[in-house]
Predict the structure.
Amino acid sequence: MRFVDEYRDPDLARALSAQIAALTEPGRHYKVMEVCGGHTHAIYRYGVHDLLPDNIELVHGPGCPVCVIPMGRVDDGIAIAEQPGVILTCFGDMMRVPGGRGSFLEANARGADIRMVYSPLDALRIARENPDRQVVFSAIGFETTAPSTALTVLRAEQEGVENFSVMCSHVTIIPAIKAILDSPDLRLDAFIGPGHVSTVIGCRPYEFIAREHGKPVVCAGFEPLDVLQSVHMIMRQLAESRCEVENQYGRVVRWDGNPLALKALSQVFELRPFFEWRGLGSIPQSALRFTAGYARFDAEQRFELPGVQVADPKACQCGEVLKGVLKPWECKVFGTACTPETPIGTCMVSSEGACAAYYNYGQYSRQRLDLQVL
Amino acid sequence: MPKTLTEQEVGARIEEIRLRPKRFRDDRVTMAHGAGGKASRSLVEGLVVPLLGEYAPSALGDAAVVTVEGTRMAFTTDSFVVSPLSFPGGCIGDLAVNGTVNDLAVSGARPLAISLAMILEEGLPADVLEQQVRAVAAAAAAAGVQVAAGDTKVVERGRCDGMYLTTAGVGVVRSGAELAPEHVRPGDKVLVSGPIGDHGVAIMLARGGLDLEADLRSDTQSLWPVVESLLDACGPGVRCLRDATRGGVATVLNEIALAAGVGVVLAESRVPVRPEVTGACEILGIDPLYVANEGKLVAFVAPEAADAALAAMRGTAAGAEAAVVGEVRADPPGRVLGKTGFGGHRVIDVLVGDPLPRIC
C-alpha cells in the first residue's frame, strides 16, 4: 500500500541496521529516549528493537497523552458526566484510564453517557444534534491534539453552539522534557523528538537541549523506518561528536512549525500556572487553559468540579517509568497486580503507554527467538 | 518486595499469572465484557462456568459435540445485536444464519437446522422486518439449513435497537473429523481462508461518524463448503478450526495456543488483508488482526497436509484467497508471536475489550 509499505521495507531496515551497528563504539552503552508514546508503540508494534545492536537501549519517555493524566482529573470528568443531561465525549484511549472512582467505561455502566469520538469536531456535532443536552469534550494530549481542540472551540463560537464546552487537560511537551533533563537519576545520550508535536511547534523549541544539555535531538516520524533512521542520525551525531537538533520527519515537520495552528492555540488557550502530571508531580507552565475571551467554553467553569487530588496508588511507579528511570518490567506491580485488564497505572492503559506496549508486544523482544517461519 | 527479579523472571511470573483461571471482579457489566477479549473471558470463565458447575460446557469451543445414539451431533447458539441492521455486504438476518452455521461448520459438522428467536422493538417498520426475514431465508437456502423453530417477542420502544436475533443450530459431525485444540501440535501449519477484517471495518464505516469511504463489504457467508472441502482433502490432517469472529484472528490464535499449550508464530506479511482494510485501520490506529470477520476461518493442519489444505480451500468460493500464515511451535506455550513485515517480532496478545483507536 502506498505511503505505508515504503516506510516498512525490511531490506532498507536491514541495511540501516547494519549502518547503525557500524557506528557504535564497542563497550559503550547508548541510551536514547523516544519522547513520544507514538514512537513507543511503533517500536514494539514492528519489533524495531530487533534491528538495533544490544548496546543501544531505547528508553520510553513521557509523551503518552493518556499516561500523564492524574487520577483526580478522571474523577472530575466522571463528576461532569454524572450531572443530569450531560454527554461527555473523549478519545478512545481515555475510556479505560482508572481514576479514584473507576474508569469512564465503568461510569457508563453506572448510567453516565460518555461517548468515544475520533475528533473534537465529532463532539461539536453531537452538541448540535442534542441542543437540550450539555456536551463536554474531555480534551487531552500534547500540542499534537491541542490545535484541533482550539479550532473546534473557534467553530463553536462561529456557529453559536451554546451547549458545548471543553474540559481542557492539554499539556505541553517542553516542560516534561525539562523535568526529565533535571532528573538526577537518568543518564541519556540523546532524544528522538516527538514528530507530531513538532509539526505544530517546529524544531526550534528543542535547541536548548542540544545547546544547554549537550544532547542530540532528532525529530522523527512514526513508521518503523523513520524510527530506525532517526537512531542512525543520532548515532552519526554521537560518532562525529556533533550535538544538534535534526529533522528526520521533513516530509511533515517544518523548522518553525505550523503558524496557523500556533495562532489558533494562542487565541484560545494560555498557559496554566501549574498542572499536576501523573507521576511527575506539579509542573509550572506545563498545561493549557482557556483565555478570558473563551472562558465561556471552559467546562471547569461551567460545572462544579470536585477537583480533588487523588494520590497515585502507592505501589504504582508510573512516574519512574514515565521519566525513563525504570523500565516497565522493573516496576513492582508490572504484570502482576497491574495488567492491561486491571491497570493500576496509566502506563498500562494506552497502547502508547510504555508498560502496555511492553506487556502486549515486547516481552519476547529481547530474547531474539529464531522466528524463521515458513 | 525487593526489586531483584530479572526481566526473564518477571516474564515467567506474568506467564504464570496469565495462565491462572480468570476471575470476574467487576461491579457491573461494561461494554468490554462483550468484546470477545480478556474481559469476556473473565465473565464466562470467572462467573458463568463456575456457577453452572457440573452443568457447564466441558470445553468452550464454537459448538458442543454430543453423541446421540451413536451419532455425533454439534449444537450451538449465538445472538446478534449489530447496529446498523443493514450494512454493505450483509445485514443482521444473514449474520444470524451464517454465524451459527459457521460455529457448527468449524466443529466439523454439516449444519442441518437452526432456530430463530426475534426480539423486536415497538415501532420497527414492517418493511425492515420483512427485509431481514428475507435475508434469513436467503442465507438459510445458501447454507442448506432449515429454520426449524422460532420465537417472537416485542419490547417497548427504546428497549432494544430495532431488532435482536438469536439462533441456535444443530449439525451432524462428519465421520472422521476430530477437531479440537488438543490435537494441535508443534510443526502444524496455520492457514486463514481469506482476507481478514472486512466485516469489522465495513461495520465501522457503515456506522458513519468517521467520514471515511471505502468500497468494502462484510464477508458474511457460510464456511461449510470450505470445511467440507478441507475435510475431504485432508481428513485427520485437519487438527482444529475456528471462525475468526469477535476479536479477530489474533484472539482465535491465542485461544488455540492457550488451549493446546503450544506457541504460534505468525508471519504477519503473509496474512491477506485488503488495501481498503489496511487503510482504514491505519487511519483509526487499530490492528486488522483484532478486527471481526463473519466468513473467515483459521485452520490448523498437519504439516504434510498443508499443501492439500491450501488447494482445497482455494478451490471454494469462500476460500479462494486462502493463505498459509504461520506455524505451531512448542515454545513459548500459550503465546502467539508475530514476525513483523519489517523484520522484527512482537507478542500478539488478546485485547481486554474492543480495540480502542489511538489518539495521535
